[in-house]
Specification:
The protein has 105 residues and is an all-alpha fold. Helix content is 79%, strand content 0%. The chain contains 4 helices and no strands. The protein is elongated and about 65 Å long.
Length: 105
């Protein structure tokens, strides 16, 4: 019984560690992309010039955006909900970073 409890505890630690890593990853990506708006970034003159986007390229991106906007919105909403769940889990189960680092070595 003790072995099963230890195995479940280890699984929880791995899952929490994974969530912590994903949170750090997405936070880093968000910080790096903070100057780029989430929607229709291709219409920013500086960025479209840097990427050498043509009018046809921008129109194609507009079309893709329109086709996928509902799906992207639903995914963003789902991601926000899961992020809130993760915050609650991490508050209730603080991650032992030293132990986590030792496991990865």
């Amino acid at each position: 019984m003790k072995g099963k409890h230890l195995e479940e505890t280890n699984k929880k630690r791995v899952i929490i560690g994974l969530f912590a890593c994903l949170t750090l990853f997405f936070t880093t990506m968000q910080v790096q992309a903070k100057d780029i708006p989430m929607d229709k970034w291709w219409n920013l003159p500086k960025l479209s010039t840097a990427l050498n986007l043509t009018g046809n390229d921008k129109q194609a991106l507009d079309n893709l955006y329109a086709q996928n906007h509902d799906t992207m919105s639903a995914l963003m909403s789902s991601l926000k909900k899961e992020h809130l769940k993760l915050e609650v889990i991490l508050e209730e189960n603080p991650v032992d970073e030293t132990a986590l680092n030792n496991q990865s070595n």
